[in-house]
Design goal:
The chain is mainly beta and 476 residues long. The protein is built from 5 helices and 19 strands.
Length: 476
């Protein structure tokens, strides 16, 4: 299938080339592009941008984790980048392709040592091969897109690309994001009613260099525990072939939007997510609120051994999440209070290889995926430091009450109850360094209760830890 997509895209580029070889078209091209008003040859940059658009991204990422409980610490410095080309739109068709490479400039040992695995830093490189320091290149996007109208607001595409949905998303908190292979469409007319969705059959999770069939990708990261308390071992045992995604967004009023998302994964599960958000603007502030409801049911085969199951055959989960926020119009500073309840019916499960969770209490560097019977409260404050909006800070504080460590049925990753503090900083350069951005993320996670099962191995990379990330991005 993918070879066929490649042939189609290469054919499109060939068509673009022959289009420029037509005598009259070539003369017009030379008159309009190759010769400037002063009679001098135009730049190579102008020539390349006439046929399409090149985009580049260079990233340097320093990450460090200090584990107070286990005394095992990590650091890593990664550098790399990606280059993409997007063809001009010809007869409503457009092609895109991109690739990337990553280098491990320096790091502590990233393979498990003395039973203590690395969790964060390894994701900058290749989680499937901790010793891989150099062979970290990946063909990323390669797709053919067809625009349904001249406004280019609606389209259908086939190939390899990235999608942004609540559950399947970029998850780009490392060097390179998640990518998918399949078919995808977005229909954005009329503006009050939008639809999108697709059929995905392959994925390349962040922190990997390979492409996996959908079932093969489940378990590339940690497998956690089975519901009987034994180590889970479902990697390589999932028979799913496809993810079907459907979305409907309705805006009944200018300040109200309702969204429905459905994720159907054959032989695994079905997840339905509903979200409604509304806002009210006054002279001084803008008030907003949101509510989410997620329901998940199993589609798994009951004959599969418990240790090889990602989700139990009778398992289901319900999650409710709410948000209330106020933004000061003068300087765009924002305060929000967020709450999530995952009921005790079962664990909220969605493969971490496919994206991050959309719940309002999501806090960078930790998730509640894999758990049930959860109460979470988070306060979030964001503000611009300067009037131009080039620099901003974000302060986050959250409390997360988890089920007992001994309850494997509701606590897949043996996560203790914890509190999490976060400080985020962002700065955009200007002038000669326009396109350069600096970001910093500091996180501390503390243990809320010392349950009888508590020991350094269970706290390692989960609680009683400091974590720092410093990222430099250059977009061109």
């Amino acid at each position: 299938m993918f070879k066929r997509i490649s042939v189609i895209i290469l054919s499109l580029f060939a068509y673009a080339g022959t289009y420029g070889q037509d005598p009259q078209a070539q003369k017009n091209f030379e008159d309009d592009i190759l010769i400037t008003s002063d009679g001098k040859a135009d730049s190579l940059q102008h020539l390349l941008h006439h046929f399409g658009t090149f985009e580049g991204h260079i990233r340097t990422y320093f990450m460090s984790t200090v584990n107070l409980a286990s005394g095992t610490h990590y650091y890593a410095l990664a550098a790399g980048g990606g280059l993409a080309y997007y063809s001009p739109v010809i007869k409503n068709f457009q092609a895109g392709l991109s690739g990337s490479m990553i280098y491990n400039l320096a790091s502590s040992p990233l393979a498990p040592e003395n039973g203590y695995p690395n969790r964060y830093e390894l994701g900058l490189f290749d989680v499937t091969n901790p010793g891989n320091r150099d062979d970290l290149d990946r063909l990323e996007k390669l797709y053919l897109r067809y625009y349904l109208n001249e406004g280019k607001r609606s389209f259908a595409q086939l190939g390899r690309f990235s999608v942004r949905t609540p559950l399947v998303n970029l998850q780009d908190g490392r060097m390179r994001p998640n990518l998918q292979e399949g078919f995808w469409f977005e229909f954005n007319e009329p503006a009050r009613l939008r639809a999108s969705g697709g059929w995905l059959w392959k994925t390349s999770p962040r922190g990997t260099v390979n492409w996996y069939h959908i079932g093969e990708s489940v378990g590339v990261y940690s497998n956690g525990r089975a519901v009987n308390g034994a180590p889970a071992s479902y990697f390589g045992h999932i028979k799913s072939k496809n993810i079907f995604v459907a979305n409907l967004a309705w805006r009944p009023a200018q300040n109200v939007e309702y969204q429905y998302w459905n994720y159907y994964v054959d032989h695994l599960f079905n997840v339905a997510l509903q979200e409604i958000e509304a806002s009210k603007k006054t002279a001084a502030v803008t008030w907003s609120g949101g509510f989410q409801y997620l329901w998940e049911r199993s589609l798994s085969d009951p004959s599969v051994p418990v240790e090889n199951q990602y989700i139990g055959p009778d398992e289901q989960s319900h999650a409710f999440s709410g948000r209330f926020a106020v933004v000061r119009n003068k300087d765009a500073s924002e305060w929000s209070v967020n709450y999530t309840r995952i009921t005790s019916h079962g664990r909220f499960l969605f493969p971490r290889e496919w994206g991050i969770e959309p719940l309002y209490t999501f806090n960078s560097r930790e998730r509640n995926e894999g758990a049930g019977d959860v109460h979470a409260v988070m306060v979030d404050h964001q503000r611009n430091v300067d009037k131009a909006g080039r620099s901003s800070i974000r302060l986050v504080a959250g409390l997360y009450r988890m089920p007992p460590l001994s309850d494997a049925r509701l606590n897949k990753y043996a996560m203790p109850s914890y509190y999490q503090l976060g400080l985020h900083g962002h700065y955009r350069f200007r002038g000669y360094l326009s396109g350069l951005e600096a970001r910093m993320i500091y996180t501390y996670k503390g243990n809320l209760d010392r349950q009888p099962e508590y020991r350094p191995l269970l706290a390692h990379n989960k609680t009683d830890m400091h974590h720092l990330s410093v990222i430099m991005d250059y977009f061109f």
